[in-house]
Amino acid sequence: MESESEYFSPYRPDGKLYGFVCVVTSANQPIGQAIATELAASKAPNNSHLFFLSPQIAHGAACIYTCTQTDQTSGLSDSLSKLYPNTKIIDYPYSISSESDTLTLLDEALNAWGRLDVWVCCSGLLGPPTIDATTPQDLQKCFEANSMAPFFALKYAPPAMAKTTPKGNYANAAPKDREYGSIIVVSSTASTYGGCWGPCFTMSSHAALGVVRAGVAVLKGTGVRINCISPGQIDVGVDLKALDTRGMNAQLPPADLQSVDVQKAHIGLERAGHPAEVAKVAGFLASGFSSYITGQNLVVDGGAGTMCPVMVPV
What we know:
Blueprint: E1 21-24, H1 30-40, E2 63-68, H2 76-83, E3 88-93, H3 99-113, E4 118-121, H4 136-161, E5 181-186, H5 199-218, E6 224-231, H6 260-266, H7 275-286, E7 297-300, H8 304-307
Parallel strand pairs: 1-2, 1-4, 2-3, 4-5, 5-6, 6-7
C-alpha cells in the first residue's frame, strides 16, 4: 500500500499538506499565529473538546516560514516545534512592503526546499478611526499592509509555486509533480462595505479584495488559486484600554467595541469569533478541499454582515 507521503496530490481527500512549504506573514499577531498552528498541526491536541481550538483536520505541512515585521520573533519556532516536531518552523523577519524582502524570502525558500506551496498574507493594519485623524502617510501604510503585500504575493509567488521537486529527505516530505499553489489574503469585512472603522481600513481592505479578484485572470493556467478571508468581529485578546486608538498597531477592531448585548443583537451566532476559527478557513483554502475555489471572498463574521450591514457602529 502506498504510504501517505509517497505521492503529491493537492486533491488528497484527507486535507494533508505533506511536503508543503508555506509562508505566513504577521505570525506574531493572533490570527497569523493561529493559521501557522493550523497548517502545522499533525494531530488534535488534548483539549479536543474545544471545537474551535482543536484541528479536526491534521494538515502537517513540511515547513512554515512564520514572518514578522520586526526582529522580534513570533515565538512559534519553539512552541510549535515541540507540539509538531515533523513541521519545520522558521521565524523570519520580513518587511511586507519591501519588494526586495519578498524576493529574498522566495529565493531562500526555493534554495532550501526547492518549492513553495502556500502564501498567507495576514498583515492587515487598522489605521485611524476618522478622516480627521488620517494623514496621507497613514493611508499609505495601510495600503502597504493590506493590499501591497497581497500584490507582491500575486506577482512573485506563482513562479515559485510552479517549481516541481522529487521527494525530499525531511519529515512530512512528499514529491511535487505538478504546478500547484494557494495564495490566501486575510482581510476583513471592510473589504465589502464601509463603516467598520475608519476610511483607511475600508479603502485598503477593498483594494486587498481587488487583488484577489484581479488574480483569477492573472493566474489562469498556473495551477495557483487565490482567495480572500474576511473576518468580522474576532476576539484577538485586545481590550479597549490597551488599544492604540490611531490603529497603527492593530489588525482588526477589538471585539470589546461591541458589548455582549450588542453582539447578541447584531451577530447571527451572538458572539465574537476566535482566531482559530479564521485559521480553519485558511487550512481549508490551503488544502485540496478547496480545489475548485478561486477568486472568492469567504466571510467569517458569524452572520453579522447578513443581519446588519454595519459591523462596528462608530
